[in-house]
Specification:
single chain, 9-stranded mixed beta sheet, 7-stranded mixed beta sheet, 17 helices
Length: 578
């Protein structure tokens, strides 16, 4: 852990002067707190942006900043952090992964926690507990997760030692999800590790949504922190429609405040999604163009090149619209289309996103195309259809593909179609945002594009995954004596420009939850607004038993998606991609 020294000035320094002083040293950060200047050893994960946010908010300090010091906040309900706690640094962090034996925990959560530990982003005094019904010992848990832990490609130094150190901090407790007695036993074990220090506790619910409330009830009544904060990360799905989502929120709020609930959508933690607001609000070349005056349509595209692969039982309860569109793609849309927030404060950003969602028209059934993949033979290999999955009912109508057109009723975006497309078992894997600009009025070179003026329009593509990158498609003259035009890409490929490995989304979101930063988590009114947009169409699809259009495994999806796009004079931008 970094050390800190206290310098008592003759007068209290301002946040800005302290930050300016910090800028003169490449190894230290200085900020005012409790009328004094604190100098911190700088760590890689504690960015200057977070430091500035920390300084500006020191009068309402809420979260633990394990990257730089051993600070810890008190209860989210508003208890004040005392100077004694800051000076002594006597705090500890307990992270409990509920559902520790599941795939998500093994493949994503434990590896993300190890990555944060490896980078020095966790407090000096922390422990990780796994909780599930499966009977395991501490050693069996460590053996189970050790095979999934990896070090950064560019940071292999002492990797084995770091893994051993991390695994020694991992423990296991077996119990029922609805048993207050089992959570009371967990509480006893947590207290043993906390050893009387200021105890902050984070619960990650990696479990099915039907047992969220049981776990929250038991943890809140029997295993919450007595003197520090308690926070709960809740994984999607957050209900199936407006009614069930609202009921889930009401039940959770019987035991937790809104400030304690961190609804996670891991797509918001992806590097290119977080870069959206930076790209738009810090580049003058883009912000003036970000409206109906220059943008013809916006496309949000998600595709997977594999099917349900034995997970059909879970997927069949929700389908692609609930699984991808209502959360991942709609969240990206809200970030893309929102007005400039007052500040980078979490509530200011989330309030702007809510305004966008409330300005949108509910999705109409006539603006939706659904599909389902069928079996297909390709290259001598047989690919199974969705209903061939033994965990899926034989006559299931659950869509594995959907395309939708949505609209925002405000001055900036009136009339601009926002097209979404998401599917499984398609020809490629990827997620991207495509912004197609309008035609150049009176284009002098339109004859060079023949009758297809769409080939003459600019396009901005933000590729979220894989091969993260941003490229702008422009028209350019091909070198030579003639006048031949070509569409070329101004390309920012992340792996070329930034050779360091990009952190996984779960790393960023876990760190934010530990620090109390809510910017990338979903607020309850935001969730309500999102479900209000999709619930009417979802109910109509199910009540009318709309039969999804079949498409071959490994294809580009159903033909109906192209008819939907052409209805609004749009061509899907990924058609020319491999």
């Amino acid at each position: 852990m970094a050390t800190h020294s206290m310098i008592i000035p003759s007068s209290s320094s301002s946040s800005s002067s302290a930050l300016a002083a910090a800028a003169t040293s490449p190894f230290k950060e200085t900020l005012p707190l409790f009328g004094r200047s604190l100098t911190f050893q700088r760590k890689s994960c504690f960015s200057q942006v977070r430091l500035r946010f920390f300084a500006e908010k020191h009068s309402q300090l809420e979260s633990s900043n394990g990257c730089a010091t051993n600070f810890a906040s008190l209860q989210d309900s508003g208890d004040q952090l005392t100077e004694e706690h800051v000076t002594k640094g006597e705090s500890t962090l307990s992270i409990t992964v509920v559902g520790a034996s599941g795939d998500l925990a093994k493949k994503k959560i434990f590896p993300a926690l190890f990555a944060l530990f490896y980078e020095g982003c966790l407090p000096q005094d922390f422990s990780v507990f796994g909780y599930a019904r499966t009977k395991l010992t501490h050693e069996e848990l460590r053996d189970m997760i050790s095979s999934t832990l990896t070090c950064r490609i560019d940071q292999r130094e002492n990797c084995g030692d770091k893994m051993d150190q991390f695994l020694k901090r991992c423990f296991y407790h077996s119990g029922q999800y609805n048993s207050e007695e089992d959570f009371a036993e967990l509480n006893t074990k947590l207290k043993e590790k906390e050893a009387g220090k200021l105890a902050n506790r984070l619960y990650y619910l990696s479990i099915p949504p039907n047992i969220f409330v049981d776990v929250v009830r038991c943890a809140s009544l029997r295993a919450s922190s007595a003197n520090g904060w308690t926070r709960v990360i809740v994984e999607k799905p957050f209900g199936r429609d407006s009614e069930s989502s609202g009921e889930l929120t009401r039940c959770l709020k019987q035991y937790l405040t809104e400030e304690q609930i961190f609804r996670i959508d891991h797509y918001l933690g992806k590097e290119l999604v977080e870069n959206l607001s930076v790209l738009r609000f810090s580049n003058l070349v883009f912000e003036p163009l970000w409206s109906r005056n220059y943008i013809r349509n916006v496309q949000l595209i998600f595709s997977e090149d594999f099917g349900t692969e034995g997970r059909g039982g879970y997927f069949d309860q929700y389908g692609i619209i609930r699984d991808i569109m209502q959360n991942h793609l709609l969240q990206i849309l809200a970030l893309f289309a929102m007005e400039t927030p007052v500040s980078l404060d979490a509530e200011d950003i989330r309030s702007e996103k809510v305004k966008v969602l409330r300005s949108m028209k509910p999705l109409l059934l006539e603006n939706v195309v659904v599909g389902q993949y069928k079996g297909h033979n390709k290259g001598g290999k047989t690919y199974p259809g969705y209903t061939d999955d033994p965990t899926v009912p034989n006559h299931s109508l659950t869509p594995t593909f959907a395309a939708a057109a949505m609209f925002i009723n405000n001055a900036r975006w009136d009339g601009v179609p926002f097209l979404m497309k998401a599917g499984k078992a398609l020809h490629t894997r990827g997620a991207e945002i495509r912004v197609q600009f309008r035609h150049v009025p009176g284009n002098l070179y339109k004859k060079n594009f023949a009758t297809n003026l769409d080939n003459a329009t600019n396009e901005l593509v933000i590729r979220v995954q894989p091969d993260e990158g941003i490229y702008l498609r422009i028209n350019n003259k091909v070198p030579g004596l003639g006048m031949r035009l070509d569409r070329s890409d101004l390309n920012l490929l992340y792996r070329s420009r930034y050779p360091r490995e990009i952190p996984d989304a779960y790393e960023r979101l876990l760190l934010d939850a530990i620090e109390g930063e809510r910017r990338l988590f979903i607020r309850s009114d935001e969730l309500d607004a999102a479900w209000d947009l999709f619930t009417p169409a979802l109910k109509e699809l199910e009540e009318k038993k709309i039969i999804p259009e079949l498409y071959p495994y490994g294809s580009r999806g159903p033909v109906g998606a192209h008819y939907l796009a052409s209805k609004y004079n749009v061509r899907w931008g990924d058609l020319g991609e491999a």
